[in-house]
Amino acid sequence: MIGRFLHSLNLLLGTLILVVFIFVVGLYFWLNQDLPQLPNNLQQINLSLPTEIYSSDGERIKILGERRPVVLGDISPYFTKAIISVEDSRFYGHSGIDHRGLIRALLTNLRNKRISQGGSTITQQLSKNLFFSFERNWLRKIKELLIAFQLEVTFNKSQILEAYCNQIYFGSGAYGVEEAAQIYFKKRAKDLTLLQAALLAGLPNSPNNTNPFLHYEKAMQRTKYVLNRMVSENFISIEESESALQSNIDLVNPQVASDPNLYFVAQVLNQLERNYGKEFVHFGGLKILTTLDTRYQKLALRAARNHLEALENRIVKERGTGPLQVALVAIENKSGAVRAMLGGRDYSYSQFNRAVSNNRLPGSSFKPFVYFTAMEELGYSPATVLMDEPLTIDIPGSAPWSPMNFNKEFAGNTVLKKALMKSINVISAKLVNEVGPEKVIRMVRKFGIKSPMGKNLSLALGTSGLSAYELASAYSVIANLGVYNEPYLIQHIDDFQGNRLYEHYYQGVQQFLPESLYPLLNMMQGVIKGGTGQVVRRMGFRHPAGGKTGTTNNFKDAWFNGFTKDISASVWVGFDNYQSMMSKSGKGLTGASAAAPIWVHFMQKVLEGKSPVNFPVPEKIKFASVDVQTGYLAQEFSPETIRVAVKEDVNLSLPPVLSNDPEKDEAGFLPDPVAINKPQNSIIPNNKNVVPDP
Amino acid sequence: MLVVLSAFLFLEFYANLFEQSVGYYLKWQNHQRPQLGRMWERDRQSLVAQAKIKSIRSSLDLQRETALGITSFKHLFEGLSPGFPLIISREKFIQLYFDFPGQWSERIISSYDLIDLDSGKNWDRVFLKRFGPWITLQFIDRQNIPLHELFLSIDTLFEVQATRTVKRGTLEDADIPKNRIFSISEFLPVLKSLDAITQKAVFPEARWFLGKDYHVTRVGISALPNGESAQHMLLGIEYNTDYYTGTLLIPVAVELANNMMSQIEKTDLSDLSAEGTLFSSGESP
Fold first, then answer.
1. Looking at CB atoms within 10 Å, which of A189, A234, A445, A603 has the fewest?
2. Predicted TM-score of the model (pTM)
3. What is the third-level CATH fold of A67-246?
């Protein structure tokens, strides 16, 4: 009976072993082609060099793929003991699998009918980190296990532990214990105290949930658990554990998650990946010198944050609306180097770069290009007079267009300089109507604007979206008196041996004659002196500067774009969801109130300690005071005068018809006392006055 | 079987038999398996990056060698095409500047302006680009900041092409008829008889030949093409180097060329008449 039972048992076991054997062999052959090859040396895993990005003032602003591998001897023994206690207490006894741990995990997973517990050994975790995805499934687990077996017979325990310590993720962007020690405690891994080592050892299990920067209490609970495990494993005594808990952990202040340079860095990476490929950037071990000035960037962030916080206290916000956002770009005029780029208020909140990718309507910020086109194409000058009056323009196939001024008032006859200073919509609409939107578009292309533009009359009021990057660059052409420097972010790139792979050369192009552009520049100085941008002077900005405000319908966008001799900067403020910016008093936020103060705060700090630099006046330019209503040289009886800069050949004298002895007409009336310096094709009929020379 | 199983379980729990066996088998098979997974992927990406770096470096080296190989301003300007700027070192520019057989270089920038530019000790390279009808020359420092910028009309290119050119080969290879070729000793008395300005217009400074070990042997004047009202003829100066024969071609005014020809022939004739071997010109008196 016993014999028969033993025989049956033997048979059963034999069959079972055979089945298991066939299953294992079959499984192996099935997975064989998916199993990766192991390197000869585990140190090889850290060979790829990091790419470093520097600002123009020499600060390292980003490191990509940084690894700081250390040998086991350079890691505090507290840490190795702690990590073994908490992750794999039988590390030195198994060959890749911890039977007890595995059985425990298996039972838990079967009970839960899903993989909820890993039970992975350090070797298994290393296997997973080196070769496999983080997806949780049985097949991946088996492959991971097989590779762990191979790791165990190929390398000794110290090599495995060292590789593990250099690979594992500790949260806050830290890979490897050396980097983690630097990030959390600003010290070397070999100098970690018991408490610090226990804290770090507790992180790999759940790097985000127990991150001490984010969840300090949870991190300390986990640290206590690690210390208890160390006591249980007899690595430390209870006294040592208690003493450690009494000690100071000396956690450093977390690195500001919203690093102000990150929008710029992201743009640099984006450009490099587009031009050279992702591998080149992330695995090339490059040294990239950018144009960013970290001082400018910090000032931009500070100026934007301070003003936005103040604004948010004043405005009405709809539910679900995100924070008030900002974009700022500052470009060095003489070279085109982008010195500051703020793509939003907080990179950690939103990585969307509003400075380059967010084409918002520029509103009146676009008008300088309309005026310049009219001056170039129609021979107008800042002293040319147009009538500000109710206007309706018939558009074939569409309803007539009746542009309105911001204040719903009309100024009558006005010289162009005054019209731009006061940002009169009707005059701008008349100019586009006369010159044609196609010519305006052709002109702005020469200013470096590449965004698509609608060929319609409303272009006059800035109804085609632009980015702050484009506007700052286009305004720098005005500051440069016609020289266009393509904006750029990268000065040069070297490989790890110091060989130059790329360098930027200044390639300024004289797009316009200085004497053509100077009158526009002077008009824009007027905007700041006595126009819509006079807040700049009221806030105490004393450097010679020009600029233009911009506000779109229903106060959805507020702009201020301005320049000094050296720097052009563009500032946009608005909501991501196009909500109107209305103050609690019911007043809308304009370019002057929402964006210009940021520009002023930024530029004031940037230029602190620097002497004011005047814009050079080109030859063939003359200055004159003209009557605002007639455009002719100011007379004693002129009710309002304005100083304009015009080309030398522009005639501003009164026409001979206005002699000292005017003849009476047939009805016996004297002619109008004032002639008007207006264009030939103006809407005022029968005007015979002098046209400024083209 | 039970004994076998018990032995297996014993060995498994005390010596990890299964893990060790599988591990060693996998180790034995290691080299046959593909390089898969995140680690190898990183390796591959690293290789791709290094390949890209290598290709950029080779291309830059080629550009550098090309720039080094430029032998004349003519060569330099001809190599410029829109969208492809050229960078040459300060040393190369100076070499080309003073290497030009004549005064034409002064029209790019005066040598005194070069001295002024160089006095700052930061002039490093010259960046040249062609844009529309212009050639831009930027004298830049190590940080690529332009120290001086000048523009040359594209016509300058034609001018330099039409000015003095150097060709490999003899005067005959440059289409100069045999009967208009003379030895340098025959030509020099005529050259010496010219005024200083004309001398500079027709012949480079002697240093240009002597400094390079160019041994001038013969001189020739091209024939005026029939039926064409050309304003210039070519004066060819043939020289020998250790390795080849070269010819420097200089356009000279037709009147001057004819004048020189007649003077050489006169010298010739007077020499011959002195020797009493006057030969017939082949024409009936």
1. A234
2. 0.74
3. Penicillin binding protein transpeptidase fold (1.10.3810)
